[in-house]
Automatic annotation (TrEMBL):
CDD domains: PGDH. It comes from the Bacteria. PANTHER family: PROSTAGLANDIN REDUCTASE, PROSTAGLANDIN REDUCTASE 1. This is NADP-dependent oxidoreductase. It comes from Ideonella azotifigens. Residues 14-332 form the Enoyl reductase (ER) domain. Keywords: Oxidoreductase. Pfam families: ADH_N_2 (PF16884), ADH_zinc_N (PF00107).
Length: 335
């Protein structure tokens, strides 16, 4: 069983030297346990935070242990009456090829139906990132038809879902993403009304002017994935009683300070700003997954995947994700 461990913690930007590839034998199963062959590993920005030893909403990743991560795979051996060989499952298998799990622990392993939805989608549009987009949009932004919703990291796993869910609710949807290729495809493939290339607008004035053009009626809802100058520019265009869902602040994940330069706008515009962690809202997952699953199964919700090959490629692919080398959900194919 090849595994990737966190070997040491980064200062600032992480590197492949923070990780270590090891091979360990898979030991025999105990009663109640299941052996899963992981087919795909999900790489997610939150893993960057876990690499630090600082206080956050989640515990740091312990050194010398298998990196945490969501996985989908197939049961290959079972000593648990609820699972049999061949079952397709989603779980938190970590950065490794096989996982041995005590399947009696509630929620540790979920069976999934791959008749109409590909297995990998349970790590993206019909999984944690999709529910994240759904929660921030539906529960915090609460969009009404005719409103304008903006989303940053628009081509990503979360952002792509947000935009399409907002379109389905009758909103004008404007994305923000890095580079002309990503922006073009956010419009042509994901169906956004417009997408602004933030790299072509490197200062506040230029970005806020681009937002004014793309959002002639101002901004009613903003789904925040990035922070920093992009947040400042959006806030300048926000309408009275607009809502911002604080989902991620990836531009600050390596420790750079990302101040908000104009907080008085919150008062002037009577805005609502709310942060959330999707795993603290398990109650909405069934409702969110029902909508996301139906939209994906009927082809109405489009999603992209960037797939790295083999467990050894995971560190490099993870560093790429933090730099925007992915388009859509970043996965590692293990089988
Ligand atoms: P993505 O697939 O969107 O990948 C990350 C993207 O962020 C990159 O592709 C890149 O796109 C963009 N990015 C990276 N650095 C910067 C930067 N300095 N400035 C602007 N954009 C940057 O990841 P996810 O969809 O998985 O996650 C999106 C966000 O949601 C993250 O912030 C993540 O932490 C957050 N999240 C929060 C959760 C919660 O419960 N609150 C749960 C899940 C995710 P580009 O090329 O366009 O720059």
């Amino acid at each position: 069983n090849r595994q990737i461990l966190l070997d040491n913690r980064p200062t600032g930007e992480p590197s492949v030297a923070n990780f270590k590839l090891v091979e360990t034998p898979v030991s025999a199963l105990a009663d109640g346990e299941v052996l899963v062959r992981n087919h795909y590993l999900s790489l997610d920005p939150y893993m960057r935070g876990r690499m630090n030893d600082s206080k956050s909403y989640a515990q740091p990743q312990p050194l010398g242990e298998v990196m945490i991560g969501g996985t989908v795979g197939e049961v290959v051996e079972s000593r648990n009456s609820h699972f049999k060989a061949g079952d397709k499952v989603v779980g938190m298998g970590g950065w490794q090829e096989y996982q041995r799990v005590d399947a009696n622990q509630r929620g540790v392993l979920q069976k999934v139906d791959t008749t109409h939805i590909p297995l990998s989608a349970y790590l993206g549009a019909v999984g944690m990132p999709g529910v994240t987009g759904w929660y921030g949009l539906v529960k915090i932004i609460t969009p009404k038809a005719g409103e304008t919703v903006v989303v940053s990291a628009a081509s990503g796993a979360v952002g792509g879902a947000v935009g399409q869910l907002a379109k389905a609710r009758g909103c004008r949807v404007v994305g923000i993403a890095g580079g002309p290729d990503k922006c073009g495809q956010v419009v042509s493939e994901l169906g956004f009304d417009a997408c602004i290339d933030y790299k072509a607008h490197p200062d506040l004035k230029s970005l806020s002017r681009a937002l004014k053009e793309a959002c002639p009626d101002g901004i009613d809802g903003y789904f925040e994935n990035v922070g920093g100058m992009i947040l400042d520019a959006v806030m300048l265009r926000c309408n009275a009683f607009s809502r911002i869902a604080f989902c991620g602040m990836i531009s600050g994940y390596n420790g750079d300070p990302i101040p908000m330069t104009n907080p008085s706008l919150i008062l002037v515009n009577r805005m609502k700003l709310e942060g959330f962690i999707v795993s603290e809202h398990m109650g909405v997952w069934p409702e969110a997954l029902k909508e996301l699953g139906a939209l994906v199964a009927t082809g109405q919700l489009k999603y992209r995947e960037t797939v790295a090959e083999g467990i050894a490629s995971a560190p490099e692919a993870f560093l790429g994700l933090l730099k925007g080398k992915n388009f859509g959900k970043q996965l590692v194919k293990l089988v």
